[in-house]
Design goal:
This protein has a single domain, classed as 2-Layer Sandwich (Phosphorylase Kinase, domain 1). It has three helices and three strands; from the N terminus they run βααββα. By secondary structure, the protein is an alpha+beta fold. A hairpin with a 3-residue loop joins strand 2 and strand 3. A three-stranded antiparallel beta sheet has the order 1-3-2. Helices cover 33% and strands 24% of the residues.
Length: 82
């Protein structure tokens, strides 16, 4: 494992392997991680990477703070789409 020190603050999502296997979503998660790690779009959170150990899978992504979101209603979102 390579440790890189930076000034970036990231979100760390912890997924338990046993729960993923129990829910039978391992294959789906693999595809989502593969797809999301290659996407570059302003409306999709960027996945920086992942790592795992015997028990957990850890996903590193962009951290979005609540105050950085605009309060939007479903009507506003529909207007943006159309």
């Amino acid at each position: 494992m390579v440790l890189v020190q930076s000034n970036h603050i990231v979100a760390l999502k912890v997924l338990f392997k046993s729960q993923l296997q129990q829910s039978q979503v391992v294959h789906q998660l693999r595809r989502e991680v593969e797809i999301q790690s290659h996407l570059r779009h302003p409306h999709i959170l960027r996945l920086y990477g992942y790592f795992y150990d015997q028990v957990c899978l850890f996903l590193l992504s962009v951290l979005i703070l609540w105050k950085s979101f605009k309060m939007r209603t479903p009507i506003n979102i529909l207007c943006e789409i159309t």
